[in-house]
Amino acid sequence: MVIRVGIIGLSADQSAWATIAHIQPIKEGGPLSQHFKLTALATSNPESAKAAARFHGLPLEKGYSNPEDIANDPDVDLVVVSVKVFMHKQLTIPALNARKDVFVEWPLGNGLAEAEEMAALARKQGVKTYVGLQARVQPAMVKAKEIISSGALGRIISTTILAIESKLLNLPEKGRYVNDPNSGASIISIPFAHTLDVVLHVLSSELTSLTATTHTTYPTVSFVSSSPDGTPSLSAPEPKCYADNIVLAGTLAPSNAALSFHYITTAPVIPALFQWIICGEKGAMKLEAPNPVVQMTTDIKLWFAEAPEEDGVSKDFYGSKEGGAEWREVEIPMSELDGIFGGIAPVYEGIARGWGKSEVSVFLLGGLLVGWSIRVGGLC
Questions:
Q1: Which of 75, 243, 276, 296 falls between 20 and 30 A from 153, CA-CA?
Q2: What is this structure's pTM?
């Protein structure tokens, strides 16, 4: 069965997220084109909708400018919402009311109340729902979860995440809305939350308690734009309204493991880094990447270490010159879908396989973090 897709936010702009991340795997000739077909799109006005329809090879009447029309199109099975966070609810509700399956980018809603409302409606309508938490299906994360689920690490006792980002000190001009504390988009709600979600997913855990603090280390932000000849220019500094340094500590269930997570935004002179260490009673695992955008990068290395055993009992290395076990790199299987920009392709593959449900826990994580960002991280 071919799933007919209508994308809200798909324009003729070839640099837009919907164009470069959502269309690539499902377009005609794409690796998943046998499972999906683009049949409609919607933008913010009739002119841009027609231009987008023409650009993507659709009949002009399939370029809509309001969410009700695309939701009620009989040729659409799955509505994808790929726009700014603060518009997610108003564009998603019509699709849910029309009993269409829905794929919404992360975060689901602008705060907890919106997330709860959409989750409740999706459950009531009995439709399949998807949230853009694609870090869960990144190859290294899939492999890490497989190893942990096998029991190779034993009971998890602690996990530590360090993320250093050197490209968010200033933002592109089209990302100016991030500096609006009511937009629902921030370092906490997007990159930090993507990482926290996959950590909890891989560990099959929930946070039972947490303490956190946020800092705005750099009090101003500038916005980068390009002149017609491609030369970048930087705007005058403006007061920053979001946190750029986040520290979280907590306890995980069911293992009672300790979690610590530090997300740091730095100047470009400091190399970016992602490092995640998981310690268990029988072994440990380490994941590293050259940047902390774990939902989009496939360049994540995975290492595993386990204590050697004698007669089924782990050796005691205390006082030994040999030290503990050694790290060994784990081979990570890759597919052609894993090389497509944005990391969305494996999500579409899962949709084709029949994934999808009304899962309140995922929705509420987004709502809680967005709300926390507005209350704690905003300064304006």
A1: 296
A2: 0.90
* pLDDT in the model for residue 309: 63
Q: What angle do CA 136, 92, 367 make, to 5 degrees?
A: 55
Pairing of strands 328-329, 301-306: antiparallel
- In the block, tokens 């390009």 appear at 226
236 contacts: CB under 8 Å, gap ≥ 6: 222
Element of type H or E holding 3: strand 3-8
User: Minimal CA–CA distance to 67: which of 80, 77, 55?
Assistant: 80
Name residues whose C-beta falls within 8 Å of residue 226's C-beta, 6 or more positions apart in sequence.
232, 233
Per the CB < 8 A criterion, the answer to whether 207 and 259 are in contact is yes
Q: Name which of 248, 234, 252 is nearest 377 in CA terms.
A: 248
Averages of pLDDT over runs of 10 residues in the chain (380 residues) are: 96 92 92 96 97 98 98 98 96 97 92 86 91 92 96 96 93 92 91 93 92 92 86 92 94 96 92 97 96 92 83 47 75 88 89 65 43 42
CA distance to 154, 317, 319, per residue, from 309 (Å): 14, 11, 17
